Amino acid sequence: MKKIVHVVGARPNYMKIAPLMDALARQTAFAQVLVNTGQHYDENMAGSFFSELQLPRPDRNLGVGSGSHAAQTARVMTGFEEVCIGERPDLVVVVGDVNSTMAAALVAAKLMIPIAHVEAGLRSFDRTMPEEINRIVTDRLADLLLTPSSDGDDHLRAEGVAAEKIHLVGNIMIDTLMRHLPAATFDRIAPRLAVEDGAYAVMTLHRPSNVDDPLVLNGIFAAIKEIARDRPVVFPVHPRTRARLAALANLHDLRGLMLTEPLGYIDFLSLTSHAAVVLTDSGGLQEESTALGIPCLTLRENTERPITITHGTNRLVGIRTDAILAGYREALRNGGAPKRPPLWDGRTADRIVPIFERFLQ
Ligand code: UD1
């Protein structure tokens, strides 16, 4: 029996692996092994996602935890090498662009185990972003490159990847979103937050380039202060960001700003799907808001997901106070008509299954 090893490690990975493992279990006889690197480890950054998304219990936990890029990558590599030598998989599946993704791909490539990369081909063309390095290296090593949108195919072809390795399958995160949306009703979060359906803003912020520099963070919060005067801003705070907020004067006195712990998947979906507008520097949330038809302001200078601008509700506003405020006013004026990019239809996992079957024959 052919064996597939799947790798997850950080919050944005779980919703990409869950629909794929489920479709493979239903439609094939492949043996599946789930490896959790433990890059994220808090209950609300990792643990809750396993139960909510009905992921199987990980077969192996590497427990790598936090650290510098080199330390974290090295710990994933050492642990994952042992797993691969013991399990001898026929295919390693990695998703997204976190350090665990790249580290696992490096290990598999050196052991000559074929690699499938789900969410291949995305590029911000900004190598100051650690994720961009992870994307480039992972795609260079992968044997099956499964892309969410046709811009991904274009980038890979331009980098010289053979056409037969590239498969446009759509956005697998939208499989998870569509599956759980019916459970994400407003009353799930309403009692915890004094906000009215459709009237509030949601913000997430965790990119090192935004939160590690107090000057940048202050500029962003000058805009948030204005927005919070206009409507409540709900802000689930990533642990990296929490550590930086101390540098901001009197944040807790900011009227209209509601800080919360990071939320579970369905609670967060409930929060975003009933919001008036989303402000974020996350990659996944640009896609989720597009699929939901909620206007999104991306607080970055570039995005590896331009399709959310051309085919969705996203606006790249940058990090300057006045630009964020101008984007906010414009987004509320022109709203967010839902326009789903092609193949963001909830059936991406079903399109990946036959590709794996052919490859492993
Ligand atoms: C990582 C990914 C990023 C992704 C993000 C989603 C990389 C390079 N970055 O960034 O692409 O968008 O996850 O969240 O892989 N921490 C905790 N508890 C946890 C996890 C982290 O307290 O469960 C704290 C630690 O202080 C840690 C810091 O957050 O040092 C950053 O965690 P890390 O995994 O290094 O990067 P993220 O910023 O989460």
Brief summary of the model shown:
This protein is of the alpha/beta class and 361 residues long. It has helices at residues 11-27, 43-52, 69-87, 99-110, 130-141, 150-158, 172-180, 208-211, 214-230, 239-245, 265-273, 283-292, 307-310, 321-334, 348-360, and strands spanning 3-8, 31-36, 60-61, 91-95, 115-118, 144-147, 166-168, 201-204, 233-236, 257-260, 277-280, 296-298, 314-316.
Distance from first to last alpha carbon: 11 Å
Helix content: 40-55%
* Overall spatial form: globular
CATH architecture of the largest domain: 3-Layer(aba) Sandwich
> How is the largest sheet built, in terms of strand order?
3-2-1-4-5-6-7
Cofactors, ions, other ligands: uridine-diphosphate-N-acetylglucosamine
Residue-averaged pLDDT, rounded? 96
Query: What Rg is obtained from the alpha carbons, in whole angstroms?
Result: 20 Å
CATH class of the largest domain: Alpha Beta
Give the full name of the CATH homologous superfamily of the largest domain. Glycogen Phosphorylase B
Under CATH, the topology of the largest domain can be stated as: Rossmann fold
Total number of helices: 15
Tell me how many strands there are.
13
Beta-strand portion reads 5-15%
**Number of spatially distinct domains:** 2
- Describe the main β-sheet briefly: 7 strands, parallel
Which structural class matches the secondary elements? alpha/beta
SSE topology string: EHEHEHEHEHEHEHEHHEHEHEHEHEHH
Question: What does the model show?
Answer:
The relative contact order is 0.13. Strand 4, helix 4 and strand 5 form a beta-alpha-beta unit. Helix 1 crosses helix 15. This protein is an alpha/beta fold. The radius of gyration is 20 Å and the shape is globular. The protein has a seven-stranded parallel β-sheet with strand order 3-2-1-4-5-6-7, sandwiched between helices. It has two domains: 186 residues, Glycogen Phosphorylase B (Rossmann fold); 153 residues, Glycogen Phosphorylase B (Rossmann fold), CATH 3.40.50. The protein is built from 15 helices and 13 strands. It binds uridine-diphosphate-N-acetylglucosamine. Uridine-diphosphate-N-acetylglucosamine binds next to helix 1, helix 2, helix 5 and helix 10.
